[in-house]
Design a protein that fits this description.
Elements lengths: L2 H11 L10 H8 L34 H12 L6 E5 L6 H13 L18 H7 L6 E3 L11 H12 L8 E5 L7 H12 L5 E7 L7 H4 L3 E4 L5 H11 L4 H11 L3 H9 L1 H16 L5 H12 L3 H19 L12 H31 L4 H11 L6
Parallel strand pairs: 1-4, 1-5, 2-3, 3-4
Bound molecules: zinc ion (ZN).
Length: about 400
């Protein structure tokens, strides 16, 4: 299930109180196919930080995701750990965090039998502390280099070399591949070899926002663990209890997070996240008054930035314009900018907002299929409706 679908299930099914007799289930049917698969991201660092030992119901120290944790706990209790797992869910919801916690638990020596992995990490043994500090020699992270478009075959070959060697300290050799869909075809095919003939103690932990982005041959050799969006209430409570955010600010961040705890944590820790968001929305609001040349200049400038984040933000924005134009302002995510949402809704209307949502989804798909980012953004810029300055 896509993240926007979950969002809708939460927003509309649990909050099914239409205004002026409007049936929100009808609206839901209309919007569902359009805003499917919205994803997210953003960047780091504020004075606040996560209070590690406060009030967590379990030792995994993860907000929400009880179902996913339960699957892993049962695997550990039965001592039936598989050689590969794929954590699937929207960006910034905690997939990589859960992969690290699972790795930590697999290596933890604080259980009743130090030879066996306990059902949850102790957070205090040497192995736990090393994984938490990112310096356990048996936990390897393979990710796309910032200056590269893909995870490359050389990185997967290095993984295979490491996998064939003896583990150094722990009982397993663990490889975490966040955003495994970023492997190019050569790298993905190379990884298949490891999945087909796994070394006995090797565990691969992959993450992706959408299982459909991976080869079916890879999917058939991993256990998928689905992860869902959190509710605003879960996020707000976590921000207040674990990050010591004031209730009012916690409510705003929780709404803007749209179910993504990772994004909420970043926004709580780094005030630049919210100011960047405001700047990006200002840019978005300015596009309708730009001429063609100015739009192309902007496309060039934006193509050098983190386009995934930008498109996600814009998608959520136009989704909110659609909701506002449909009389459902109370269901919008950008709760701190409702005046601008009302203005855009009055200026552009439902049909144009719907076109923009489709256009942004097309742009994101093109970029995933390796269309030049600048060209994809130029096409998108031309789709933005015009207004006189
Ligand atoms: Zn431990």
């Amino acid at each position: 299930m896509s993240y926007i679908q979950a969002q809708y299930d939460r927003d509309i099914c649990l909050n099914n109180r239409g205004k002026e007799g409007q049936c929100k289930n009808k609206l839901r049917k209309k919007l569902f196919p359009i805003v499917r698969g919205i994803r997210s991201d953003v960047s780091l660092v504020r004075n606040r930080c996560f209070c590690y030992h406060s009030g967590m119901a379990h030792q995994w120290n993860i907000v929400g995701h009880e179902h996913a944790i339960d699957i892993l706990r049962r695997t550990l209790l039965a001592q039936q750990v598989r050689h590969a797992y794929l954590f699937v869910g929207p960006q910034r919801i905690g997939k990589t965090l859960l992969a690290h916690r699972f790795a930590q638990t697999l290596l933890c020596t604080g259980g009743p039998d130090p030879q066996l992995a306990p059902p949850e990490p102790c957070n205090s043994c040497l192995a736990c502390r090393k994984v938490l500090h990112g310096n356990h020699p048996d936990v390897h992270v393979i990710e796309r280099a910032p200056d590269k478009q893909f995870i490359l075959i050389e990185q997967v070959r290095a993984l295979q070399d490491d996998a064939s060697r003896r583990k150094l300290e722990g009982r397993r050799n663990i490889f975490i591949i966040p955003n495994a869909h970023e492997m190019n075809p050569q790298a993905a095919n190379c990884l298949l070899k490891t999945l087909e003939e796994p070394e006995p103690d090797v565990v691969l932990l992959l993450t992706t926002p959408d299982a459909g982005l991976l080869l079916p041959t890879i999917l058939s050799r991993v256990q998928q663990v689905a992860m869902q969006l959190l509710t605003s209430e879960q996020i707000k409570a976590a921000l207040e209890q674990q990050w010591q955010v004031e209730p009012e600010e916690a409510a705003t961040i929780a709404a803007l997070a749209a179910g993504r705890m990772g994004w909420a944590a970043l926004a709580a820790e780094d005030e630049d996240v919210l100011s960047e968001r405001s700047a990006q929305l200002e840019t978005l609001a300015s596009i309708p008054t730009l001429n063609k040349v100015q739009r192309f200049d902007l496309a060039q400038k934006l193509s050098a930035e983190k386009v995934d984040d930008l498109l996600e933000l814009w998608l959520l924005w136009w989704r909110d314009v659609m909701l506002t134009a449909s009389g459902c302002l109370d269901l919008t995510i950008n709760i701190d900018m409702r005046d601008l949402l009302k203005r855009h809704s009055a200026q552009f209307g439902l049909a144009t907002a719907e076109q923009m949502v489709r256009s942004i989804l097309r742009t994101r798909e093109s970029i995933e299929q390796n269309v030049n980012v600048r060209v994809a953004l130029e096409v998108l810029m031309l789709d933005v409706p015009a207004l006189k300055a």
